Amino acid sequence: MTHTIAGKIAFITGITGQDGRYLAELLLSKGYVVHGLVRWDAAPVDPRLVEMGVVLHDGDMIDALNITGIIKAVQPDEIYNLAALSHVRVSFDTPGSTFDINAKGTLNILDAVRVLAMEERVRIYQASSSEMFGSSAAPQNEDTPFHPCSPYGVSKLAGYWLGRIYRDSYNMFIANGILFNHESPTRGADFVTRKITRAVAAIEAGQQERMTLGNLDSIRDWGHARDYVRGMWMMLQQDTPDDYVLATGKAHSVLEFVTLAFEAIGVELEWRGEGVDEIAVNAKTGKTVITIDPQLFRPKEVHYLLGDASKARTKMGWQPEIRFEQLIEEMIKADRREILSVLEETNDDGDLWRKAG
Ligand code: G4F
Questions:
Q1: pLDDT tens profile 142-189
Q2: What CATH code is carried by the domain that includes residue 154?
Q3: Sign of the torsion angle spanned by Cα atoms 324, 326, 330, 333
Q4: Ligand 1 centre and the CA of 106: distance in Å?
Q5: Residue 352 C-alpha to ligand 1 middle, in angstroms?
Q6: Which residue range is the domain that position 299 belongs to?
Q7: 167: closest CA among 218, 216, 110?
């Protein structure tokens, strides 16, 4: 059955996360009817999702019958499986639920489509991750061997292989998007980029003196989530299902990210000391603004992720449009604005912040 885009139905798991929100906006702008899965015990959901026109369903990724029932009711043309326990550090503390959600949850989606005999109608996007590459040498692409370094990485690898096996065994349209880190102003505050931009804005406003960080030497390939959700959609519009790396092809350390974030508010950092004793001071005032907390180190770290997205560029015409520096600026601006709006609500003197724009 062929469908025009207008009136196509999409079902997004993980709709309340950063990518879910951007993807919903994109699909709605293309005329899709968008349904989203919300975990039954989730914190209050942002009402803007409903205002945007997303139809929400309470459910649970690890309950196979529940997921099957929702997919039967929604009758989607496209499923985007974004639901996950996505924090790598947390996956060391909760490996069991990480597996349940990321691996068993993925299996529940794939199996639901199969037992409902919807294989020919439904196209599935599986959110795989560059964490699956783990300790493999950079740059990484679709042919790079996987050496995950965390329960999260292994659980995502299980989802990836389930996707490939179901694709080959049941002739299903399943695409694995192997996405490198992608950020935005709506990134969760426990990921390092947003943790940094929020803290920088709060330090500038005098609401916080310093921030603690873990491994400053980690290298990541950071892009903007808006570019990456476009790639997710493109994967499901191809003639044949395949797996694609999405990345910018540029690598930066955590130290570089935090240095640029402070530069965005006009503060130059001076680094002193080494290892866990390393600190950064504001070069002008001499005040310490960054210290290291060894508790933020991971039991096993992925040191160097740098993606090679040539396949996505050549086969789909995908490429990122938002540069690293623009991403940081956008995140800092949004966090300054957030502080300004709180100051205004509390009638505090927000003069310092009017420049935030
Ligand atoms: O921001 P992060 O927590 O992201 P991480 O671990 O790279 O994972 C993210 O990207 C993956 C794609 O490659 C996704 F699959 C995954 O779901 C998630 O979205 O940490 C980035 C780096 C790490 O090396 C970490 O050790 O920053 C280092 N880091 C240093 N200080 C910190 C901190 N990370 C966090 N979260 N908090 C810190 O204070």
A1: 999 999 999 999 999 999 999 999 999 999 999 999 999 999 999 999
A2: 3.40.50.720
A3: positive
A4: 22
A5: 31
A6: 192-219+252-303+323-356
A7: 110
